[in-house]
Amino acid sequence: MSNQQTSSSTKKLETTTAKGLSNNSTTPVSNASANVTESMIASNNADDTKKLIPNTIASNPPRRQFTRQRRQLTASERQQCARDASLHLIKLQQRLPANARIGLYYDGFGELPTQPLLDWCQRLSYQPYLPVVGSLGNDDKRLRFVPIYQQKLLNVPTRIHNLGMKQNHHRRLLWARELDVIICPLTAVDNDGNRMGMGGGFYDTTLAKSYQSGTKKPLKIGWCYDFQVVEQLQRQPWDVPLDGLITPSGIRWF
Question: ∠ CA 49-51-52 to the nearest 5 degrees?
Answer without folding.
Answer: 155
